Amino acid sequence: xxxxxxxxxxxxxxxxxxxxxxxxxxxxxAQFIYKVRPDGLAVLNVQKIDERIKTxxxxxSKFNKEDILIVGRRENGWDAIKLFTKLTGIxxxxxxxxxxxxxxxxxxxxxxxxxxxxxxxxxxKNAVSDAIKLGIPVVAxxxxxxxxxxxxxxxxxxxxxxxxxxLFFWIFAKEFLKTKGLIKSDEEMSIKLDKFIEE
Length: 199
Hints:
Structural class: alpha/beta
Radius of gyration: 16 Å
Distance between the termini: 32 Å
CATH topology: Rossmann fold
């Protein structure tokens, strides 16, 4: 019964390892951990991952695409972020975030945004810091080792794996486009999941 309510089949989540955490676990992320494997790796609760992605999409869909900024310093997420931008038109900044990008209007690359999405609050801490100064909400993909200070909405997941980040951004793109009424079904996605998760 529960599986029917997931946005993608359980098998798809498991295949890309979206639920596999790290050996390090922070106090805040404990609520999302399903179990700890014999090798010490924490396993996140897939149901909770799915629920949080739904919550994030519902929240972000209230914004216009030009008001959202996606930041991802971790190289494993760059391809998926670029494909996501191509599908949704939401601005993204894969790579090193330039401090002041959101706060310094004198910068040539200055961007105005009303909400920030980061693939990992630790390597993307400069972007999070700028968002805090501006008082704009931060949605962050958090693994079991992340702290959640200053994060408004945590999406628990493996935020290090190329395939898991690919699946997250594909789901995010399709659900965002559906919520905005731009597509009606998964079949209408012009870029398929395989492209997002290929090595």
